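Task: sequence design from structure.
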């Protein structure tokens, strides 16, 4: 876990029940889910295997160990999990440039949270090497801390990454708003007790009690997120 903002900033939104905002990265803030699938297709093609397009919904959202293990089992490829992880990360990095495409509304939301000094964390199943690369596009100054998938014993769908982020910000998990694009990430955030806003990217996310589903980040602002703490959830789209 990398922290970039002093803990003294974790309670600046006085008068609000919203303690912090925790955001997923791939598919939520940056339009990279397609890059990951392309990397997986390329790596397995080199190994002599063609990936079934329907598997994309299975592997989306990580973590890397789960996705890679599934693809090894599904294809029967002669490669170890450790070897495949390195290949996938290398291939993904080769595909991304310095300026990654942000999801609609991402830059505006991050700017608003920063302007109001709302404690914000990036919580991703991607490895640290990938997060640090993507932060150049997102702006590391927008996050009080970042949590990578290879920095926790159990990553998403377990609650550990979100519990770690909340603790790092000095926030009550039940007073944290989480924004996620996959069922895996939503499961992790809900298990941590956070209020969840789902913004589905590759695969749909089913409605559930207390879960808010929106079409894009353009529908989300600070008033919306504070409302989650008061009203529990907004009407799903």
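Answer:
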């Amino acid at each position: 876990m990398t922290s970039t903002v002093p803990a003294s900033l974790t309670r600046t939104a006085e008068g609000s029940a919203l303690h912090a905002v925790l955001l997923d990265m791939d598919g939520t803030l940056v339009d990279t889910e397609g890059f990951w699938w392309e990397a997986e297709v390329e790596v397995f093609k080199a190994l002599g295997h063609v990936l079934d397009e329907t598997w994309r919904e299975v592997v989306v959202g990580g973590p890397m160990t789960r996705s890679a293990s599934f693809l090894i089992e599904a294809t029967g490829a002669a490669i170890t999990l450790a070897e495949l992880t390195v290949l996938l990360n290398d291939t993904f990095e080769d595909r991304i440039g310095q300026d990654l495409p942000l999801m609609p509304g991402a830059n505006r939301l991050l700017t608003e949270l920063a302007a109001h000094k709302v404690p914000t964390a990036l919580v991703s199943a991607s490895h640290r090497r990938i997060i640090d690369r993507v932060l150049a596009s997102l702006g590391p100054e927008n996050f009080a801390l970042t949590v990578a998938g290879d920095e926790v014993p159990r990553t998403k769908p377990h609650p550990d990454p979100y519990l770690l982020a909340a603790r790092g910000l000095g926030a009550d998990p039940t007073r944290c708003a989480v924004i996620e694009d996959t069922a895996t990430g939503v499961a992790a955030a809900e298990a941590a007790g956070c209020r969840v806003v789902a913004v589905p990217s590759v695969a749909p996310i089913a409605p559930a009690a207390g879960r808010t589903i929106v079409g894009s980040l353009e529908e989300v602002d600070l008033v919306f997120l504070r409302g989650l703490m008061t009203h529990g959830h907004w009407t799903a789209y």
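Confidence is low (pLDDT under 50) at residues 4-15.
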